[in-house]
Amino acid sequence: MPPRQPPAAASQNPAPEAAPARPRAKAGVAKVGVAKVARAKTTKPRRAKRLPPDVVEEIFRRFHAQDPEPKGELEYVDPYTLLVAVVLSAQATDVGVNKATRRLFAEAATPEAMVALGEERVREHIRTIGLFRAKAKNVIALSERLIAEHGGAVPPSRAALELLPGVGRKTANVVMNTAFGEPTIAVDTHLFRVGNRTQLAPGKTPLEVELGLEAAVPDVYRRHAHHWLILHGRYVCKARKPECYRCLIADLCPFEPKTPPPG
User: Fold this and answer.
1) What is the full DSSP assignment across 151-201?
2) What's the alpha-carbon Rg for the chain, to the nearest Å?
């Protein structure tokens, strides 16, 4: 029997020991952390505080005292010409719309006359207005719809108006308020800005601001509320630099910083 061999010598560079395995997190810990992050991301920000009712009352009392019968600046002669003018005013100035409609209404001031005038001629009259091609198409289409479904008359119903081509909620609210005396509130960019700045009706969408104002404005002032606020936003509470130094309600408005007088 051959002699038994001695055991081999240990390697001069032994392999490093494996790192000890990390202990597993307790079940549910990771999920709880994710849930907290998800909740943090989905938590809605606190809504801005609304003005107290007595402050709202005083704001509109002042607007009324300054201008008891505010008027919109679009030129029209009846509900139909008002409807057409408001449709044309989207993304355009009232001054620009008035220049175009003076010529247009001189030729076509009824749905029947507008359809007879034709889309091409309407385009020629309103080509100085933004989106004039689409607007000319809508004016002809809504005129045809009025003739076919309403005997050529403008319906005194917001729902019916919103079914007409080119007519949205804001346009329908203007017509309902101005032509038919309804206390509707039409929210344009000026009114949206004023509603948020003053906290009369803070909201992320025009509809939120509209509904907020309906809830906040005292009934006695509701009929003219949107005219007061639109004109205020157009001429005083301007987008880039509000003229707080001559604002009728500066002492009641929480907007900061107030702008100083020029010079």
Assistant:
1) TTSPPS-HHHHHTSTT--HHHHHHHHHHHH--------HHHHHHHHHS-SS
2) 33
* pLDDT tens-place string over residues 102-157: 999 999 999 999 999 999 999 999 999 989 999 999 999 999 999 999 999 999 99
**Whether this model's pTM surpasses 0.90:** no
Please, is 251 exposed, middle or buried when counting C-beta atoms within 10 Å of its C-beta (0-12, 13-18, 19+)?
exposed
Could you confirm whether 188 is annotated as catalytic?
yes
Residues 6+ apart with CB under 8 A from 41: none
Q: Chunk the chain into consecutive blocks of 10 residues (it has 263) and report each block's average pLDDT, rounded to whole numbers.
A: 44 44 46 42 52 96 97 95 96 93 96 97 95 95 98 96 96 96 95 96 96 96 96 95 96 93 87
Q: Which of 54, 137, 188, 238 is catalytic?
A: 188
Asked about 31 being catalytic, the answer comes back as no
Q: Report the C-alpha gap between 99 and 128 in whole angstroms.
A: 9
Q: Which of 170, 241, 251, 258 is catalytic?
A: 170
